[in-house]
């Protein structure tokens, strides 16, 4: 009976670990999607502003393009503000990877990963769970 319980604990441990990794991946994916949304809105603002400047002699076209540029600018600013209100950084002229990397305190992140690995190792020793083989 004891062996059966231990095997159940091992299975539960690996399921929980996989679930945690899926949640982390989803968090990172949503963060990247949000940054791409801000970048897209900013790019559309630039495009419509260029269209407005090229519409010389056509005041109706220029007015429409400026209205669209303003709409996209407001949406980009609103998204960036909401993202920053949640504690994330939206920087100008940075790549997506640089933005994500600059958000985290690398020293604290490395320390946290070390703590997590120690906790994981201690739990494995407690449960007598052998190292997982890569899939």
What kind of sheet is the major sheet?
none
Mean pLDDT: 80
What is the domain tally?
Answer: 1
Order of helices and strands: HHHH
Radius of gyration: 24 Å
Description:
This protein has helices at residues 2-53, 59-85, 96-103, 106-127. It has one domain. The chain has 135 residues and is mainly α. It is elongated, with a radius of gyration of 24 Å.
Topology of helices and strands:
Layout (H helix, E strand, L loop, with lengths): L1 H52 L5 H27 L10 H8 L2 H22 L8
Helix pairs in contact: 1-2
Quick rundown:
With 135 residues, the chain is mainly alpha-helical.
Key features?
4 helices, mainly alpha, single chain, 135 residues, elongated
